[in-house]
Design brief:
The chain is an alpha+beta fold. It has 7 helices and 18 strands. The protein folds into 2 domains: about 35-170, no CATH class; about 180-290, Sandwich (Immunoglobulin-like), CATH 2.60.40. It is elongated. The relative contact order is 0.11.
């Protein structure tokens, strides 16, 4: 009886050894499969090159705490867009890859020759890393791979949020004026005195008309850059409205134009003309002189 029990125990020990041999984790796997996708300190990134599958490429350059667009006269880039990109590629540093084969690179479009986006990260012109963004495994997710690794990850991001043209990265809020101290147009002028406003005639402006003007300046958003043809035409065109505005940030001159059913705006702070929505154009052009000057309705 004891001999039979001993034999059964021996068989059990052998079976456990076989199971452990088959299922024990492989300690000799590719080291790149367990290291983070981007082993780079975020603060060290000072330049980003974004390329797309159509061979377009744009450059984002960090100047101080802001990002600019060298290809567009160093106009400010949308900081939120840049931060979303950096959040996506530096997040989940302890996540595990979903694949690592050469075939998967092709299938998920994260190969060096087949991708949707190529993101190159630099520090003072020295290349830190190049990432490839590919197809999407689900809503707001995308496959990503570091060129230096075989591991492929799934990150929370969309290729549409990393366009390959500079105009799409432009800060749409760059002309907003949040705290004006004085505003002068062709037909009226306003100045702030303490907590109240006075017109050039010394009157109190109509409150609704004043708030419409201030609100439009605070929320002003451009719709992108004017085309090259429009840039040339607008350079010699007469503005429909000129606003000279003083604020805590300095003095600004805004000029509004319309051509061919489209609306444009120019600021003396920047060399280029921008597209403007009809709504903002109409709000600024429709300010009533008699109301804003306090001559009626006060």
């Amino acid at each position: 009886m004891n001999r039979a029990v001993t034999s059964l125990l021996l068989v059990l020990i052998i079976q456990c050894g076989l199971v452990a041999t088959v299922y024990w984790p492989n300690t000799t796997e590719d080291p790149s499969a367990t290291q983070p996708m981007l082993p780079v300190e975020r603060a060290s990134i000072s330049e980003i090159l974004v390329g797309d599958e159509f061979d377009n490429e744009t450059t984002l350059l960090k100047v101080g705490e802001r990002w600019s667009l060298p290809e567009l006269e160093n106009l400010p880039a949308d900081t939120d867009m840049v931060e979303r990109l950096l959040d996506a590629i530096t997040a989940d540093r302890d996540s595990w890859p979903v694949a690592d084969s050469v075939a998967a690179r092709q299938r998920f479009r994260v190969a060096s020759y087949h991708y949707r986006r190529r993101i190159s990260l630099l520090q003072d012109k020295d290349l830190l890393a190049t990432l490839y963004l590919g197809t999407s495994p689900g809503y707001r997710k995308i496959y990503a791979r570091n060129e230096a690794q075989s591991a492929i990850y799934s990150i929370v991001f969309s290729a549409h949020d990393a366009p390959g043209n500079s105009g799409a990265w432009l800060d749409r809020k760059l002309l907003q004026i949040r705290a004006p101290l004085s505003i002068t147009a062709d037909t009226y002028s306003l100045r702030r005195e303490g907590e109240s406003w006075r017109s050039g005639l010394g009157n109190v402006p109509d409150e609704r008309e004043l708030q419409a003007l201030l609100s439009t300046l605070r929320s002003l958003q451009i719709d992108g850059l004017a085309s090259e043809d429009a840039q040339r035409d607008l350079a010699s065109a007469e503005a429909d409205l000129v606003l000279n505005i003083s604020s805590l940030a300095g003095d600004v001159t805004l000029e509004l134009f319309h051509q061919g059913g489209k609306y444009f705006i120019h600021s003396n702070e920047y060399p280029l003309f921008f597209k403007l929505g009809a709504y903002d154009y109409d709000r600024l052009l429709s300010i009533d002189f008699s109301l804003i000057s306090g001559e009626s309705g006060g």
